[in-house]
Amino acid sequence: MTRLLTPDEPPAVVTLRPEGTSPFLLVSDHAGRRIPHALGDLGVSESERRRHIAWDVGIEPVVRFMADELDAHAILQPYSRLVIDCNRPFHAPTSIAPISESTPIPGNVKLTKDEIEARQREIFLPYHATIAAELDRREQAALPAFLVAMHSFTPVFKGVSRPWHSGVLYNRDSRFAAFVLRLLREEDEMTVGDNEPYMVTDDTDYTIPVHGEQRGLPHVAIEIRHDLIETEADQRAWAQRMCRVLIEAKRLRDESYGVA
Q1: Which domain, by its residues, includes 195?
Q2: For burial by CB atoms within 10 Å, which of 95, 105, 124, 130 has the most?
Q3: How far apart are CA 155 and CA 152, in angstroms?
Q4: For 53-94, what is each residue's pLDDT tens digit?
């Protein structure tokens, strides 16, 4: 059995405020860009590994600020999506992508079954097991759980500009996302995508369909355009905005569904 991570490398999960009292569970599938030592640089230049193809640029500090503001448990993935994308089912072609946008990933070509399973076992599964364990704990303790998946997106993809400042994403269940979308659109001078720049589907996404929909939990995925969260001041401002919106969306949702 191929081992991927060495004992001196960081674990595949970062947790913040595990004792947090907030009903919101924050998750970040693409928070980091670390690559295991065994994989070298995957044949990808440093400049490319700093781009959005490797991680969600700027989202990790936003999630940290949100966790502090909300006193919320946050679970983050510190390894690059180029190693394995933790928001893709294993059958998806982009789970371990041989090319990302227009950048070839030589280290992801002609992998053996053992090499693929090592990435799944040591990167993907511990991250999602941590999320599942926290949601199980809340269910057993009859504690509320609102799943919030935080992402960022590039302002230009394959040469096409994206006009949205942020996007609100969901799959079949838009009940909580609809409140978040409405409130974000009420923010001054905000262009907010409704399932833009991406749609959540069972074939292309994992976190929301598996941890949100299958459990019947209120949930939403948020995308923030990463040129808007490049500085600490902007990261804090977006964190405060998202905290304000989530708290109000929960109030409206609870009121609408008669939740005490």
Answers
A1: 14-256
A2: 124
A3: 10
A4: 999 999 999 999 999 999 999 999 999 999 999 999 999 999
Domains in the chain, number: 1
d(CA 254, CA 175) in angstroms, rounded, equals 11
Closest CA to 200 of 80, 93, 78, 87: 87
1 domain residue, yes or no: no
Q: What CATH number has the domain bearing residue 121?
A: 3.40.630.40
Tell me the whole-structure pTM to 2 decimals: 0.97
122 found inside a domain: yes
Q: Does a structural domain hold residue 55?
A: yes
The amino acid at 193? G
Whether 248 is in a domain gets the answer yes
Comparing CA positions, the residue from 120, 150, 108 lying closest to residue 238 is: 150
- φ, ψ at 48 (rounded to 5°): -70, -35
